[in-house]
Design goal:
The chain is α/β, with parallel strands linked by helices and 380 residues long. The chain has two domains: 171 residues, Rossmann fold, CATH 3.40.50; 193 residues, Dehydroquinate synthase-like, alpha domain (Up-down Bundle). It contains 16 helices and eight strands. It has a six-stranded parallel β-sheet. The chain has a two-stranded antiparallel ribbon with strand order 6-7. Helix 7 runs antiparallel to helix 8, helix 10 packs across helix 15 and helix 15 packs across helix 16. The chain binds fe (ii) ion. Fe (ii) ion (FE2) binds next to helix 7 and helix 11.
Length: 380
């Protein structure tokens, strides 16, 4: 196999395993700390992290982040971090908390008048401004297995006022530290285990088939696909099975590392209108069209498909597609847009929104608007 030239950048210091969060105390000692979270209902986790933070000079909990974090809550977090002169931002939660904390930490350093004049995170999200620095330490502690946000420089925000959801990247969005403790995921409810696990599976598969994949990212993505395919169902049925939770957590983090090098592709672009307009959970919005898109991409990437089948010990593409569908059905995930109330008249809008995302350019199959509408009709 020829090795094509590539670049990689992985600046996050990762600790993985049961109990690893114990060492956050060293990073928080005598510092002004802010925990950014989503109103974590799963009792015990927030208290445990506060206890493990040890002896900070001050500790503020900002728990107003909602699922699909909005520009408003991120701006408010940034404001509170600024006036409290926060030095360490700890993101605690799922993808929403982790993404929001990245922006909160960066907004903390902006001057008040600039934030006011440029309308907060919105102007960064729309590319009108770019973050130039981040003085706080940024620590991510994921409590779900799926987002991968702990090891990427990507964050996704929603603007309900202007009706869009958009991802952004910034060199300041890499976490300084990630503490991935599978034990924190044992209380994740069934449905959420399914959605986040499938999100991670899509991260891995999209990273693998992306035109931007590299000889470095591909094996990481392959192993992530295998870990999730082999263990998600066990974690779903036996939430306290720490062995299965550990495998899925590792797969999710590896998928994050893989897509941090490549980005995701058209399934993530499709997921944004599906979450904004049809209120679908992110993971399900990404996975609902996984099977038909793999079928469509496969003839364009025969060598990658052969490697995927070999790695997963699948005798044929048809068998693999069947395994994916069986897994999705077993965890009660939607496998058709129709079942989600998406009607034929909605498809043009979904296709139009999707093609606005630069992620679509990384998909092996390039679509025109007409082609994507026709594809969605066929696979609805
Ligand atoms: Fe995702």
């Amino acid at each position: 196999m020829d090795i094509k030239p590539f670049q990689s950048f992985l600046p996050t210091n990762v600790s993985f395993g049961v109990g690893v969060t114990r060492s956050i105390g060293e990073l928080c000692a005598h510092k002004r700390v802010m925990v950014v979270t989503t109103g974590l209902k799963r009792s015990g986790i927030l208290n445990r992290i506060i206890r493990e933070a040890g002896t900070p000079a001050d500790l503020l909990v900002f728990d107003e982040i909602e699922p699909n974090p909005t520009c408003e809550s991120v701006d408010r977090g940034g404001y509170l971090a600024r006036i409290n002169e926060i030095e360490v931002v700890i993101a605690l939660g799922g993808g929403s908390a982790l993404d929001a904390a990245k922006a909160v930490a960066c907004l903390r350093d902006e001057r008040e008048e600039i934030v006011a004049a440029s309308a907060g995170i919105r102007s960064y999200l729309l590319g009108e401004r770019a973050f130039a620095r981040r003085s706080t330490q940024l620590i991510a502690i994921p409590t779900t297995s799926g987002t991968g946000s702990e090891v990427t420089n990507v964050a996704v925000f929603s603007d309900p006022v202007n009706h869009y959801k958009k991802s952004m990247v910034s060199p300041w969005f890499w976490n300084d530290y990630a503490f991935v403790d599978p034990e924190l995921t044992v209380t994740v409810p069934e449905k959420h285990t399914a959605a986040t696990g499938l999100d991670a599976l899509v991260h891995a598969i999209e990273s693998f088939w992306a035109v931007s994949s590299t000889p470095f990212s591909e094996p990481i993505a392959l192993e992530a696909v295998k870990l999730i395919m082999d263990h998600l169902l066990r974690a779903y049925h036996n939430p306290e099975d720490i062995g299965a939770r550990t495998k899925v957590s590792l797969g999710s983090m590896m998928a994050g590392i893989a897509f941090s090098q490549t980005r995701t592709t058209i399934l993530h672009a499709l997921s944004y209108p599906l979450t904004v307009d049809f209120h679908l959970e992110h993971g399900f919005a990404c996975s609902v069209l996984l099977k038909p898109m793999l079928q469509t991409n496969a003839p364009l990437i025969p060598k990658k498909v052969a490697r995927l089948l070999d790695y997963l010990e699948a005798p044929s593409l048809e068998r693999l597609l069947q395994r994916i569908e069986e897994l999705m059905v077993s965890v009660d995930a939607p496998v058709h847009l129709k079942a989600l109330g998406v009607q034929e008249k909605d498809l043009e809008g979904i296709a139009d929104q999707t093609l606005r995302s630069p992620l679509t350019k990384l998909n092996p199959k390039a679509f025109t608007l007409e082609e994507l509408i026709a594809w969605l009709k066929e696979n609805r």
